[in-house]
Specification:
This protein is α+β, with helices and mostly antiparallel strands. The chain has helices spanning 27-35, 38-41, 52-67, 112-125, 142-150, 204-214, 263-272, and strands at 12-13, 17-21, 71-78, 84-93, 96-103, 132-137, 154-165, 168-178, 195-199, 218-220, 230-235, 238-244, 257-260, 277-283, 286-292, 298-303. It is 24% helix and 35% strand. The structure holds coenzyme A (COA).
């Protein structure tokens, strides 16, 4: 049996933010600060609000959900001056916490949403009844993906048509944290964490040009304890680590295989950058090709 859902606190405090319950009177500030801004809603499932009445109806709907015990909308208020900066919505259902959040544009890039999401994730993780925390992210929303990763959620994969978007549905990345279900000492493989690829010493600039410049991954910092030459590249659930080997020889057969969108355009981009491509036979109807990275490591590309 799924236990009763815990009741979130009315207020959560972080160093710079107060997360407090949404109120009907917040509608004008929500409209003015972010809900009418098309840059803010660009990667969200809803269109910018055309006027404050839309925001008022939106707030009323969220408050009705809260009254039914379905969701907890927290206003993000700046502690220094009480300014409303955004909203974080927490839905609790059958042991699962779902997160959605939005921040006004002038406050982006200062770690504020990481701070807010971390506070809510920490609270969720401290509730034994909650076994899973999840959020859906537009595949182009790198900043949001990063926020979730920094708060301990991992990308589970690309969900075709997994998220609502106006009247239609769009592809999303599913991010989640799950409470281990088995005794913690029961041995089992739970996930693919990363793929390590070798490179010759001094290969970092070429590795960056390939993985970031051509394949569109983002380089993320490595733990300071890793001092040998190398780099970590991430996109959604794909994690590639490259590391220098003094006596480098590329593996003959071993390779990572990546599903890619825009297959033909990507192949053209790689070809234009001088990478040799070898077509491979289709598998399950999907086209495939092999490309060598700058050092001769083979990477398989599969049409997504
Ligand atoms: C996504 C959003 C919530 C991020 O809030 P924020 O307070 O600016 O995020 P933070 O400053 O806490 O962290 C952003 C992280 O993403 C990184 N980042 C920002 N833009 C990026 C980009 N274009 N590519 C890769 N990483 C990016 C930042 O460097 C930072 O990571 P770091 O701390 O490791 O350097 C905010 O931009 C927003 O509200 N956007 C519109 C609504 C939205 O997209 N909501 C999320 C729906 S799932």
């Amino acid at each position: 049996m799924i236990p009763a859902m815990p009741q979130p606190p009315d207020e959560l405090l972080t160093p710079r933010l107060r997360l407090r319950p949404l109120a009907q009177g917040d509608a004008p500030a929500i409209f003015a600060h972010y809900a009418s801004d098309p840059q803010v809603t660009r990667l969200l499932p809803w269109a910018p609000h055309a006027d404050v009445h839309v925001t008022q109806a939106f707030v009323a709907a969220r408050l009705a959900e809260r009254a039914r015990g379905e969701s907890w909308p927290f206003v993000l208020e700046r502690r220094a001056d009480g300014r409303l900066l955004g909203l974080l919505q927490l839905r609790l259902e059958q042991g699962v916490a779902r997160l959605g959040y939005v921040l006004e544009r002038p406050s982006w890039g200062r770690g504020l949403m990481t701070e807010a999401v971390r506070a809510v994730v920490d609270w969720c993780r401290a509730q034994p009844e909650l076994v899973r925390i999840t959020a859906l992210v537009d595949p182009h929303n790198d900043a949001s993906a990063r926020v979730l990763e920094r708060c301990g959620l991992r990308c589970e994969g690309h969900v075709a048509r997994g998220g609502p978007h106006g009247d239609t549905r769009v592809d999303v990345l599913s991010y989640a944290w799950g409470r281990p279900a088995l005794p913690p000492d029961a041995p089992r493989v739970i996930d693919l964490d990363h793929v390590q690829l070798p490179m010759p010493p001094g290969g970092l600039p070429a590795a960056r040009a390939f993985w970031c410049g051509l394949l569109g991954l983002v380089e993320v910092p490595r733990p300071p304890a890793l001092t040998r030459e190398g780099a970590w590249f991430v996109r959604g659930a794909v994690r590639i680590h490259v590391g220098a080997e003094a006596a480098f020889t590329p593996p003959r057969r071993a390779h990572p295989a990546l599903r890619v969108a825009g297959f033909d355009a990507l192949l053209a981009r790689l070809r234009a950058a001088g990478h040799e491509l070898r077509p491979a036979e289709d598998l399950d109807g999907a086209r495939r090709a092999h490309v060598a990275d700058p050092f001769g490591n083979v990477v398989e590309l599969i049409e997504g």
